[in-house]
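Q: I'm a student working through a structural biology exercise. My instructor gave each of us a protein and asked us to get a predicted structure, then write a short paragraph describing it. Mine is Cell shape-determining protein MreC. I'm not confident about reading structure output yet, so if you can add a plain explanation after the tokens, that would really help. Here is the sequence I was given:
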Amino acid sequence: MRNLLEFLSKYNHWFVFVVLEIISIALLFQYNSYQGSVWFTSANSVAGRVYELSAEVEKYFSLVDVNQQLSLRNIELERQINVLDQRILNTTKDSSNIIVDNKELFNGFQIIPAKVVTNSVNESDNLITLDKGRADGITPNMGVVSGLGVVGIVYMVSEHYSIVLSVLNSKSNISCTIKNKGYLGYLHWNKGASDFAFLDDIPRHARLNKNDEIVTSGYSSIFPQGITVGKVTNAYNSADGLSYRLKVKLATNFSTLRDVFIINNAPMQERIELMRAAQDSIQDNE
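A: Happy to help. First, here is the predicted structure for Cell shape-determining protein MreC. I'll explain a few features afterward.
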């Protein structure tokens, strides 16, 4: 306290000067119209600039929500396109509607938005941490997708976080098919580049083209049918020579992954079990 008083006593003339300057400036702008208008214009200009910057910052942060909405819409549109493509294919081939009806059983799946907390692309077994967990209804073996394509499968879950087995993991094994051709295979990643994986067990009689689209097969309760995986870039013989191995350019950019969607597979699991029960019943009656 003593030091403060000594400081004020030593520099009291400066404080008096500052106070008088403030009073004089206030009187100048208040009682002189020209100076007052200059001050008003300048103040409005500064305030306007501040508000403009504030709006820009707010708009920037709102882009996170916009991006999430666009990604969600992209997934839905992609699914609808795949449904229509399959329906057209079946109709032009004059086949029955059984495949289409089975496909449409997946229309009601629930998706839960989540954000990537941690992610790796350079390990042999890459994992992704998401900010959603058991409290949000997440359970192991749920599929995870982005606005561009498949991401992976939920592996472990805590109360508020979940670990995803990325497509870029040596243990990843996702059932896929060549769109509109029906050939089935399993997607694997053998280390290396983060934008390529391999589709194994494609039969030798398959008719293949570069840029054929690879999508999820729907033959499990993890992913609905028709979710984009990537495109074929090359075809090789398998090690035993009995099948093809396809090099696939992945649709998802794992190095920039931020927003994802977790697929709640409960409705799909129930419907798949119903389908299987119906098929078993038909076989028993035969």
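A: Here are two points you could use in your paragraph. Residues 46 and 284 are 81 Å apart (CA to CA). The longest helix spans residues 33-92. It's a good idea to check both against the output above yourself.
Q: Great, thank you!
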